[in-house]
Amino acid sequence: MRTAVAPASDLIAAIGNTPMVELRRLAPHDGVRLYAKLEGNNPTGSVKDRVARAMIESAITDGSLVPGQTILEPSSGNTGISLAMIGSRLGHPVRIVMPDNTTPEREQILRLFGAEIVFSPGAEGSNGAIRLAQGLADADPSVFMPYQYGNQANPRVHFETTGPEILAQVPDVDVFVAGLGTGGTLTGVGQYLKCERPGVRIVAAEPLPGEVQGLRSLEDGFIPPVLDESVLDDKFLVNNRDAVIGLRRLLRDEGIFAGLSCGAAIAVAVRVAREMETGSVVVLLADGGWKYLSADLWSRDLDELEDELEGSLVW
Amino acid sequence: MTTIRIPPVLRENTGGSRTVEVTGSTVSKALDDLFGKHPALRDRVTEDGELSRFINVYVNDRDVRYRDGLETAVGADDTIILLPAMAGGSR
Fold first, then answer.
1. How far apart are CA A177 and CA A161, in angstroms?
2. CA distances from A56 to A53, A136, A149, A190 (A)
3. Between residues A101 and B26, which one has the greater pLDDT?
4. Domain at A11-43+152-310: CATH code
5. Which of A105, A312, B48, B60 has the fewest CB atoms within 10 Å around its CB?
């Protein structure tokens, strides 16, 4: 059993310090050790608890968020749920702009925490939710938008907490792999590890989008301001099929029930590990599988699932 | 022949085609062949001879920016994927 830690003063204070586990069956050969950082063990079940807490605390400190003020944020799920929990603890109404084609669990959980949901057109993807939220924030100056894509508290919390935890848990880490969303995890952990352990490689797993890409023009494309591309050493695209296969191997071989982006991250981690002779690979698994249960990613026919994922936003 | 996959947002420049077959031993040469067939794509994919920052180019599943860039080698069995930079993943 893990060592007990002192009680947290509140659920918000229980964020972070997540477990690291060795993946002995998924490691491709004896020379390489593969480890997973289980961010699904955070209070609302994802790495975004760290980011939401950091953004809210920094906004309270600098006065940009005042007592009772409404928090508005575009999110396809995890960040919204984290903000909803934290907002409910601290007395801030929370309004989340979310594409209308995600899994129903996200809406259910957001409502449990008392958040209001504004749906954006699913065909416009995450970019559409961002555009709509920015429009709402411009029209209503009374709301506070943390804006995870551009908020430096996002990479900073990974520099200050996730990175040091990883180095303490796996001091000989040679490669760090994580999914690329806002870029906050890769940037913050990457910058920290590169300071402390020169030569470490930072590798991104990027979802291959389906035909529904939601871009009206190329210039609508989006490089998140928090992403420091110079910290990346490699980047791999992962299609839905390979992500689902990775997700199923995590469950079958290691007993880890994780979200779809974790399937993509493990696929890349195993691939990178296979190409190494010796060393240690750490992969960050961003969330648990709970919010994806209705999509039945674990048992349905892969071809059927692939067609369905092509047109929706399960990630 | 190497296959280049064209994202939806650029298909107005390929007459609607999702893929284009090209020849060339590097990404640069393959793209030149593509631009020869669909000239309007050149200014959308490149800026002053460099890749536009709004476009990511992959050989199979690997981003060429972290390999040899436009000089990354491609073979006849490889697929080049052009993708707009966009918000992805579960956030």
1. 17
2. 5, 19, 14, 23
3. B26
4. 3.40.50.1100
5. B48
**How would you label A282-292 residue by residue, b for 16+ Cβ within 10 Å and e otherwise?**
bbbbbbbbbbb
Residues of B at the A interface (Cβ-Cβ below 8 Å)?
Answer: 7-10, 44, 52-55, 58, 61-63, 65-66, 81, 83-91
Q: Which residues contact A246 (CB under 8 A, 6 or more apart)?
A: A238, A262, A263, A264, A265, A266, A267, A270
Is the Cβ–Cβ distance between A120 and A150 less than 8 Å? Answer: no
From-to residues of CATH 3.40.50.1100 in chain A: 11-43+152-310, 48-139
Q: Which residues on A lie below 8 Å from B90 (Cβ)?
A: 46, 76-78, 179, 181, 259-261, 286-287, 315
Residues of chain A contacting B65 with CB distance shorter than 8 Å: 229, 235
- Predicted ipTM of the assembly: 0.89
Amino acid code (one letter) for B91: R
Q: pLDDT digits over A72-87, tens only? A: 999 988 999 999 999 9
Identify the closest residue of chain B to A217 by CA–CA distance: B9
What class does CATH assign to A48-139?
alpha beta
- Give the count of Cβ contacts less than 8 A between chain A and B: 108
The alpha-carbon gap from B53 to the nearest alpha carbon of chain A, in Å, equals: 9
Structure tokens at B55: 């476009």
Q: Distance between CA B5 and CA B18 in Å, rounded?
A: 6
Parallel, antiparallel, or unpaired: how do β-strands A71-74 and B62-63 relate? unpaired
